[in-house]
Design brief:
Order of helices and strands: HHEEEHEHHHEHEEEHEEEEHEEHEHEH
Oligomer: single chain
Strand content: 15-25%
Distance between the termini: 23 Å
Number of strands: 16
Number of helices: 12
């Protein structure tokens, strides 16, 4: 007797999204906070591992704390070239419930569909939850997948000191997720990541599926400007060495001369700025701020970096201040596998779902996995383009459609062997 085709249990997927979203939830603010390797994220990890084991998956944890649930293939050789899906379950502060978690739990939903149909895949299916994707506590972001893809030494990652002074490796051990598997030991034949868009494009264009074929390049820098603290009432403007003014001039320059002089694709953001001594009547002696530069074209990204460096040198001389820069993160743009993106588009077309090919403005674990395997992403709309915010929302039917497209792409990949 022929076995039934795998069918998604969308109600279960939505239920698990709500249950995981309740961990770290703040009723007063409406969001949830599960910073990497905190007690709250440990609770999320424990829940995910429990759900993996309920599906009789083999659970593996590597040395950087990445979690893998493996549905073994019909034949032992099927583990040689597994299909991998996944994302992350750590969050920023006061976050929504979908970023990252949707991709992990939709992967579980695909595996559940196979289990409930009594099917064994031709190749193993792996559901991955990568460590410290957000980079809030430990930098760089996307650390777990970066280490997994060989872009960062595992010991260097374990020795990373967080914003709270903790060592990452110590915190992994404390929460019980210092695994022994060598990162990269499971080499996927392909990697597929389902994610909310975190932007407004799909909703604005009335599209239900985004076929993500590339990711922007990202450069993060920390800039420290040192001037001279002095009395706000007795020091003439022309005699000041005002670190606060210099920082403000840099923020304005980024908007007007870097973004304003570039194509629409170049983006610049100062997301963190701190002044010292931070007193109302004292000229700041020091300003420390971050710069986030992004562009899908690496040449344009390099141009933005050069413009910033040239401006800071001119600013230092003009204002009589010193400027130090530290590069925190530098990821080149990524072009995903065309054949895998074509499979996603074909699945959307078969279902008659409005879709578009697109570039992602955010960083994702898929850009690291693309270093070692053909990779691509599926997007579903984000209402209002809002993410990293308690108001992050995607309609349940849209979440279900995205998971269905994921299932069909997985089936297509496995049929193609």
């Amino acid at each position: 007797m022929a076995l039934p085709d795998p069918l998604l249990d969308t109600a279960k997927l939505l239920e698990q999204l709500r249950e995981l979203g309740a961990i770290g939830h703040d009723a007063a603010q409406g969001g949830r906070t599960r910073i990497a390797l905190t007690d709250e994220e440990k609770a999320g990890r424990d829940l995910l591992v429990r759900w993996m084991r309920e599906l009789d998956l083999e659970v593996r944890v590597d040395q950087i704390g990445n979690i893998f649930g493996v549905l073994h293939a019909e034949h032992p050789q099927g583990m040689a070239q597994p299909l991998m899906m996944g994302s992350h379950i750590d969050t920023v502060r006061n976050a929504g419930a979908l970023d990252g978690c949707y991709g992990v739990l939709a992967g579980l939903a695909v595996v559940r569909a196979y289990r409930q149909a009594g099917l064994r895949p031709a190749r193993a299916i792996v559901v991955a939850a990568f460590t410290n994707e957000e980079g809030v506590r430990y930098q760089p972001d996307m650390m777990g997948s970066l280490v997994y893809a060989g872009g960062m030494d595992v010991q260097a990652a374990l020795n990373t000191v967080g914003t709270d002074g903790t060592r990452l490796g110590d915190e992994l051990a404390r929460i019980g997720y210092a695994g022994d598997m060598v990162p990269g030991a499971i080499v996927p034949r392909e990697y597929i990541e389902l994610h909310i868009e975190q932007g407004p494009v799909l909703e604005a264009e009335g599209k239900l599926i985004g076929v993500v074929e590339s990711l922007q390049g990202i450069c993060w820098q920390k800039v420290t400007i040192t001037g001279v603290a002095n009395h706000a009432g007795t020091t003439p403007t022309r005699l000041r060495h005002d670190a606060g003014y210099a920082a403000a001039a840099c923020v304005a320059f980024l908007r007007e001369q870097v973004v304003g002089a570039a194509p629409e694709t170049t983006l610049a953001t100062v997301g963190s700025l701190r002044l010292e001594p931070d007193l109302i009547n004292v000229i700041p002696r020091r300003a420390t701020f971050t710069v986030d530069l992004r562009d899908p074209d690496d040449q344009r990204l390099q141009t933005a970096e050069r413009r910033l460096a040239d401006f800071l040198a001119t600013l230092a001389e003009r204002e009589g201040v010193t400027v130090e820069t530290e590069q925190l993160v530098r990821f080149e743009p990524v072009v995903f596998d065309t054949a895998l993106a074509d499979r996603i588009q074909a699945a959307a077309q078969r279902r008659g779902l409005p879709h578009r090919r697109m570039t992602s403005g955010a960083g994702h674990d898929a850009q690291m996995l693309a270093r070692i395997a053909p990779s691509a992403m599926i997007f579903v709309p984000s209402r209002g383009g809002i993410s990293h915010n308690p108001r992050e929302h995607t309609d349940d039917d849209q979440l279900a459609l995205g998971a269905q497209v994921l299932l069909e792409v997985v089936q297509d990949c496995l049929r193609g062997q």
